[in-house]
Design brief:
about 325 residues, alpha/beta, Rossmann fold, 2 domains, 6-stranded mixed beta sheet, 5-stranded mixed beta sheet, 8 helices, about 25% helix, about 30% strand, globular, binds zinc ion
Length: about 325
């Protein structure tokens, strides 16, 4: 089972929840939860026929009447922009929600551009994260913002009743880290995030949740490392070691200016100083493999006039 977030093939099953469904249901009964070895994303096993059945599932078996949408704060809209094109996806009206869900998951060439898109408890329902992210990138203005809220896996898995939160149409179990990974990987910059409780069933139950505001940045999206002549990891620390151990595409070299690391190797892959950067051609990719020094690394790459593409880990 490939990771739906980072496409890594190394994933393992974490647990199976024995469940039943309505007889003749359009989607799976037992919930099989997987975790990716690379990005640690947690997700349900879902087949093509489950995906094909989702529309009918939402129409005939789904109930969300007791769900109150997250009140999205006014100040989220008040950023520096002249036009205000806003799209809000929430479960206020279920038919509307399902239409927008399918719109986001199918590749579309949407001509309308938005300054603000809110995905309120939506992205955990998505079965094609690649299409969703690609659509978001084409639908949002360059300085636009995306609001995202999701149930908080780290909280709901350890509550007294996790099975109540393992809702079959929640295909992903996001944490703060995996949402940041998904959006960061696709060229969005995190502005802020916070944990909150979403009240459901008229206050009888709370869904522990997290919300985020991202700003669209100019980083290129959907860069597949296999398309490049050479791929470098910038940062030869723990992140790179983890990346190398859990990814399968070829890495040409590592870049790190720590004197003790230059000219050494990790798994036979050579470590170069950043002086190698001006020599790299436009068909090279640098993956920034440092969580804590991203800003300095980006600055250095720019300063050294790198001609290729850059992406974050
Ligand atoms: Zn992954």
């Amino acid at each position: 089972m490939k990771c739906p977030l980072c496409h890594n093939p190394f994933t393992s099953i974490v647990s199976t929840y024995k469940e039943l469904s309505i007889d003749g249901s359009y989607i799976y009964g037992d919930i099989q939860v997987y975790r990716c070895h690379n990005c640690h994303h947690v997700f349900n096993y879902i087949t093509k026929s489950d995906i094909a059945g989702l529309k009918k599932y939402y129409k005939e078996e789904y109930s969300s009447q007791k769900f109150n949408p997250t009140p999205i704060k006014n100040d989220y809209f008040n950023f520096n922009t002249t036009k205000k094109q806003i799209m809000v996806v929430n479960q206020n009206k279920i038919n509307n929600f399902v239409d927008k869900l399918f719109f986001l998951n199918e590749k579309n060439n949407c001509n309308t551009k938005y300054n603000f898109i809110a995905l309120d408890h939506t992205i955990e329902h998505c079965w094609n994260l690649d299409s969703v992210m690609q659509n978001l990138k084409t639908m949002i203005y360059p300085d636009g913002r995306v609001y995202v809220s999701v149930p908080d896996y780290e909280e709901y898995m350890y509550r007294y009743n996790p099975y109540l939160m393992l809702i079959k149409e929640h295909l992903h179990h996001f944490t703060g880290a995996t949402i940041q990974y998904l959006f960061g990987w696709n060229g969005f910059r995190l502005l802020r995030h916070r944990k909150y409780n979403l009240s459901i069933l008229n206050g009888k139950e709370m869904i522990p949740s997290i919300e985020f505001i991202f700003e669209c940045s100019d980083i290129r999206i959907n860069i597949s490392p296999s398309k490049y002549e050479s791929v470098y990891l910038y940062g030869a620390g723990r992140e790179a070691m983890h990346y190398l151990a859990n990814n399968y595409h070829v890495i040409t070299g590592l870049i790190d200016d720590t004197p003790g690391k230059i000219d050494r190797t990790i798994s036979t892959i050579p470590i170069y100083s950043s002086r190698v950067i001006p020599k790299l051609n436009s068909n090279s990719l640098i993956i920034v493999s440092s969580l804590y020094h991203q800003a300095e690394i980006f600055e250095n790459i720019k300063k050294l006039k790198f001609k290729g593409d850059v992406k974050c880990m």
